[in-house]
Structure formats: structure tokens, C-alpha cells
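Researcher: Quick sanity check before group meeting.
Model: Go ahead. Protein one:
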Amino acid sequence: MGTSLYRSLLLSTGGFSVSDYIRKFTVRRYLMNNSLGLWYQVSIQDKEQDSDNNPWPPSICQNTSKWQRRPKEVTIQSREPTRVQTFDPESQNGVITPEIPDLAFKILSSFSVLPVFPDDCPPQPAPFEHRIVSAKQVPMGSYYAVKQNEVLGGGRFGQVHMCAELSSGLTLAAKIIKVKGMKERDEVKNEIGVMNQLNHVNLIQLYDAFESRTNLTLIMEYVGGGELFDRIVDEKYHLTELDAIVFMRQICEGVQYLHQQYILHLDLKPENILCVNSTGNQIKIIDFGLARKYRPREKLKVNFGTPEFLAPEVVNYDFVSFPTDMWSVGVITYMLLSGLSPFMGDTDMETMNNILHANWDFDAEAFENVSEEAKDFISRLLVPAKCSRLSASGCMKHSWLNNLEEKAKLHRVRLKSQLRLQTYLAAHRQWKKHFNVVAAANRLKRLQKARSGNPV
């Protein structure tokens, strides 16, 4: 699969979609195609405007926060060699009412049919250069304004708030972690050390850090698109297997980079995969609070994680390594395509027993329209024997994540997983009101002790 095609797939509404032909248009308008296959027309201003006055989503303007100066010519994609639809450019935020297709030819400058894809829309990097961070023991308020009423997320550690750098106005996210003792403080500093090694478009970036008597605060890249599963359960989102491929390819690229740095994430789950914005398909992996540096000569064991996504070796309190993350990738893929959690039982104990016995299958109804390639991909990850699982590099070479030109023609059916995921998310959030990861870790520890014959 060509890099340019993959990059074009990262943009859906407000960006390019899969197509077969290239056309060149003049000055005043872009013709763009969203993820539903709908074309719309966008007028481009002569002068730059602030994003607050911009009636179109920033992603339409090549993922920038301002309008760009009008080019003499713009190259875009078309699915057909002789026909283009235009849409009324007057309404805001895009429209879905087509005009007469032939009107589009009035803005044609030149026409050519080329079996290539544009390569001018790479995945958006962090809005700052990668940096090495150490925790400052100075008041954070001297440098950043934290918006206490804008909570982006939370968990066992505390909360994540939106914040802004006072000197530049840059929007960022502040992860405020309560620390009670040296062990907790060292764990957060381990997270800082891990993030200092990460410089990849699909991994959230660290910007700054502060240490006080009661808290450690990580200032990170702001990722505003919300959790991946929240995005795809929206009834307006048309989730296809091709979308799932695009998401999973990015996850595998991020994990591949982690493993190349000898880092294990150890908490891969849907909550830790965020969309960069609310329109495109680019994602970032977050939360390295449980991540560990992998040293082959040091046998690493862990007793934490979220039960549904634990690998058998974690449940057994056996040694963990790169394949441990790949099991979680398999679970996420299964859920994305089916809307079902493959190992979830009525209790955590039942869930972990299902994991230990590899008690899962492809639900006939849930996987009715899912390709055999996708099922093969999952089957090569949800393997009890660590050494038999696909590596991240192996995933990138698997046929399911490649040849997207052909898959774009085949996988246009809306997946049934969306409705099931709505039910799953509702139940999961109800559960989170009463439990947290620490409680789950305690239950896991009790199970491990019971299996080893030690008294609890």
C-alpha cells in the first residue's frame, strides 16, 4: 500500500477519500469528498482569517487553524474520470445537497487521469517539536492557565484538564496526578521517562512537567477528538471495515514504534485511543502510566491492567514482553469489528478464566459482513502462546492492513458493531462509577495467588 493512499485515508469529512483519478482546479474553489462519498464545494478566501471567523472546519483547509492564501491551482481527487458533483458552498460546515454535476466543469482549469494519489496530506504531528522533559519544582500557574471546569478525562491517577501556555497561548492538556508517597512519585517519573523517548505521530507527546508536594502534573499535547469508540458510535458516522483497517493500522504503527524503543504499553484499550479531531480518522495512543521499559535479561511481571484486555501471561502472573501488547491489539480489533468484547464474563473472575482458556469465537451474526482476512488477523493475535502471536511488524505486513486500493472497492457496507458498541460503552461507564483500575488489579492479584496455591 502506498504511503500517499494511507495518508489520504486518514482524512474523512473535510478531507480526501479514496478515489481513482486526479483533477486540477483553479483558484477559488476546492471540490472535496467526505467519508460518505459525498462531494462538496469550498470557497477559499484571498486573505487569511482567524479560525474564529472561519465558517468551515479547519480540517478543510489542509488541517490548519487558518485559511491559506489562495493557490493558483489545486489538485484533488475524483472517483470518476468524466463526472464531478458540486455542492452549495453557502451553508456552513459543509452541505449534502448536490447541484447539477456538469456545473463543476465551469471551474476546471485542466483535466488529467492519473493512477496516483496526492501525498500532500500527511498525518498531523504534534503542534510542537519533540522535547526532553523533567519535572520542574516551581509553581505551574506561572506558566500555564489550567481550565478547572474543562475536564478532558480522568481515572485512577486524577483528572486531565484543558490548559493554555501563558507565553504562547498554545492549547494543551494538563494531567494532574495525586501522589502520596515516593512509590507513586517514582511511577509518574517513570511515565515522564517513557514519554521522553516517544516521538511518533500516533503517540501523544509530552510538553512539560511540574512537581509539587501533593501532585505531579504532565503538560501534554491536546487531542480534541475524544475516544475512538465514542467517535464511531455516533449515528452520523458510517463505520466500514475500511475505517477499521485505517484505525488499526495506525494503532499497529504506534505499537511498532513503542516496541522498537523497547517500551511495553501494557494498558492498550479503547479508552486509551483518542481521535485527533472530530472529523478526520487520525488517532493517537495515550496514557503511559503503566508502561515499562523492556529489558530482555530482566524478567518482568505485572499485576495490573483492565481485565477484558489482559493477556493470559498477565492473568497467570507470568513474564510479559512485546506479545503482551499484541494480545490487547487483537481484543481491540475484535471489538471494533463486532461490537462485542471477546472475553467479557459476568464477573472479572469469569472474564479472566475465559482469557486463560482462550474461550472465544467469532459470533456468526456479529461477524456476518466481516472479511476472512480480518478474522485471520484477529486469530493470529488472540493466541495463548506468546511466541505464536503476530508482532507489530508482522501486523503491518498482514494482508488485512494492506492493499487498501482493492479494499476501498469492497468494504463499503456499514458494520453492525456500532449499535453493539453503544450498549457496551453505556454498561462500561456505569461500571466505572463503582470500580476503578486499582480495584481490578486487586482482584487480579487475588486470582493469581489463588492459582499459585498461596493464601490470599
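Researcher: Fine. The other one?
Model: Protein two, sequence then structure:
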Amino acid sequence: MITIQKVRNALSTVPHPRDPDKNLITSGYVRNIQISDNAVFLQLIDPNDNNCINKVKEVVQKLDGVESVEVKVIASPLAGGPLDKVKSIIAISSCKGGVGKSTVAAHIAREMAKGGYKVGLVDADIHGPSVPALFNLKNVQIKTNNQKQLIPVERDGLKIMSFGFLLGDAPAVMRGPVVTRYIQQILMMTDWGELDYLFIDMPPGTGDVQLTITQTARLSGAVIVTTPQTLSLLDVARGILMFEKVNVPIIGIIENMSYFLCNKCDEKHYIFGENAVHSLQKRFGVKLLAEIPLQPQMTLSLDQHLSNDYIMLAVEHMKEALSHLDELKSGVPDIKFDDQNVSVRWADGTEVTVSNKQLRLSCRCALCANEITGEVLISEDDIRQDIQPKEITPLGNYALGIVWNDGHSSGIYPYTLIKDLANTP
């Protein structure tokens, strides 16, 4: 059976044409692998090397069961554009509106700029741009340079660009293709100059607009913002899967509005539920960057220059995670599966094996477990006797996404869970 993992393993043997120490997978040059019957389709960022393209076709064609290979060469998102001087591009994302994503993105960008880094912030939420209000930027007139590039607004060393500067108070009523074109223009036609970090305040959701951003800018990673509320947590899996599909590693999760800290008794009040963040870590195996409480500071304009210890902690954890980005790409283990078991082997030689039935029964997605109480909703009797994976997709270096032959595909299986299952008698 042809799987995405087998294709990735084959492509990991092809060295990057300009950096022999890396392969096409770890360098992020392979995008959007798709399998239909016995045909394999993938996108390859132009390596400017015909031998490399031919090698890609050759190694995939050698896989058992592959009858045809189609490689679509796409332009490098950074080649020759204003983003080529940006070292790291980070998406701040949420799959649901109203979780405070824009506020968190703005605070993080400002904190990084205060730390002496060259930082940019682009507000890509065309239908609801929040950044101008967060920085108390009113009646801004955007100018262009001699190359007709937009000149970002600077506030305390932070470069800012928002569709709100161009739109003003008028509503953005436009169709999807027009929206994606405007987003591409804001990203690629702004004179960012040299930056250490460019943060993209993503529009909420996981649709075409979000995919356009991942294809326009070569993202270094993504931070997902959520809240303890059940509806927000339900959407986190969708965000993780979207970014993994386009080869963008998840840097970590920030839980906003985690609790209310009483200023009189210092007691934490979990208004939206307690221990949700721990269920996130257990379910997805993704690093928690910070738990940000409900506090007046987060509602104030950022031009008041107030420090926030929780944001500072999130920034420190994010920088630490960014320093290990290569591990996020190269730490993917080898996966093997058959009609009985799933085996996972890491580069250090550690290998574990879990039965298909045991792994399927461990799923804690919304279909298999109550998101509020944690009650398991499936039993051994619900699992078919011949249960086995149809396809397994590694999600960074933290989990597996599995499509089962019973049609179930919404589960995420952290490596920590798989190791625990393997060690359970």
C-alpha cells in the first residue's frame, strides 16, 4: 500500500541540491503530497536543478505499487521578494474567532521588538483587522517607495502593516479570490527590509485564505492560540492538521483566558474550565508556550508600554522552541504498519509497537471521548476485528495522524501516548 509516509521516507534520501547536509523533506521543499489509487502527486519548490527533479520522480516511482508520479514545480515563496531578508516568518493562528489571537500576536510582536530584535507584524485578517485599534493607530496614511512597495507603519521599532490601514472603517465585502489576492499583495508588496521575525496575524479558520498564506510565505512555524472553552479546543486539531499538510511545524500552543486571577486573594478562578491545557498536551503532544489569564493589561492599548510577565514567558518559550525547529522537521520517526500492529522507530534506535486495536481504542477525539468530562465513548466492541490503518501521517515530531479502515480519521496520536501504550501490559 502506498502511503504519504513511504513517499516522505523515499524523498528524505534525496539531498538538497545546494545543501548536502539537508534533504528535500527537512528543508521544506516538498509540499502537498497526495495519493490517488496508484498515482502520486506532489509539489516541489523549484530547486533550479533538473537532476534533483528527476531524482524525485525516480525514488518515488521505485516504491511498490506506484504507477505514476506527477511533480509540480512551484516558485520559491521567498525568491526575489521583499520577504527574502526575513529570517523567520511565524503564523499566529486560531481556528476559531474570539479567542484573543490578534491581541496575543500584537503583544508577542511588541515584546520581541522591545528585546532588541528587528520585528514586523502583518494583520492578515482582512474581514476583521484588529491591529490598528490595538496600537491606537488612527487615520494612518500608507505611503509607497520608489519601487511602489507599501511602507509599513513603525511604532517603537515594530514594523506594522494591516489591511485596516488601507480600508479605514469601511467593511471588507469581497469574495474569496479577491481576498487571497489582497493578502498576497500585503505580504509581498510591503517593504519589510531586514527582519529577525515577521509575525502574521492569521485570519481565523482553516480555509483557502489560510492556505494561500502558507503558499505565499515560507513559514518557519505556527503558534496556535486557543481558550479553555470546549468549542475552541475542538478546532485545535483542525489547525494542527492544516499546517502539517503544508509542512509547517507547530511551535506550540498558547492558552488565552486560562483563568481569572483575583487581585485581592490571588486565587485562580477557572471560569472556562480547568485542566483543559493538560488535555491539549496529552491529546496533541504539542508544547504549551503559556497560560495567559484574564487581566486588564490585555485590554489596554499597546501604546501604553506596559510589561506583561505572561507574554514575556510566552516569548521565551517560543524562542526556545524556534531554536529547535530543525528537530521539528528532522525528528520524524520511521513508521511501519500492517494488519496487526503499528511500529514507530526513532533515530536514536528506540522502537515501540502497538496493536491496531489498542491504538484505535486510545483515540480521544470529539467522536471518541467527551470533550468536557473526558468520558470514553467507544469500547472494544465498537472496534472492528480487522481494524488497521489505511494511511499514517507524521505530525511534526510529536504525533501521528491516522486514517483507519473504519473511516475514522479525526484522531491525533502523540508519541508519548504511543510509548505509554507500548509499555502497558
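Researcher: One line on it for the slide.
Model: The mean pLDDT is 82.
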